[in-house]
Amino acid sequence: MSPRRVVDLSHPIDAAIPMFPGLPAPEIAEHLSREASRAHYAGGTEFVIHRYSLIGNSGTYLDAPFHRYADGADLATLPLERLVDLPSLVLDRAERVAAGQRAIDVADLDGLDLTGRALLIHTGWAARWGQENYLDPNPYVTAAAAEALVAAGVVLVGIDTWNIDDVEDRTRPVHSALLRAGIPIIENLRGLEHLPPSGFRFFAAPLPFRGGSAVPVRAYAVVDRE
Fold this sequence. Notes:
The protein is α/β, with parallel strands linked by helices. It is built from 4 helices and 13 strands.
């Protein structure tokens, strides 16, 4: 039996990360420098305090239902049991995406036991992170597949692309179906190729901003046995 391991599934955040077109990049700045802090502490003691300014939809981030619906759960009221220690599955479609097939449809879900589980969709798109072609038309879940995910009882859906919907479809049917059902969405995952198809637990707790719609998360998986 292989030892337990933790797999980091989040992209680091800095000012150069890919952003949805039209959204500003994160800003990370010193609010109090180490040098300036010395006046507040005993000799030899210093700290740095940073200020972070960013759009909630930055890096690897979670969409709460409030992102789409005014009456949906926000980041502060989204139940933690839908976000952490989730039994999970990986749906690997990287080879098919590499062959030019972008849609993840109902047939791709055949045979998956999704009830009470998180589904993480591996398309291989994360390998483009930091390149201009990351924001090319993306692999996406179809509207019919989204409805099937809701019916199957999935509790969270994540994908390693910059949108779970086809960005050319402005109705955003996947966001609409999943978030209406209270199912959180995580976009811009990475590292899914390091996970087994099943037998791991997924974690992605957001900061509990009242009235918050989306926020970066430190997503990770714990693989107990393989």
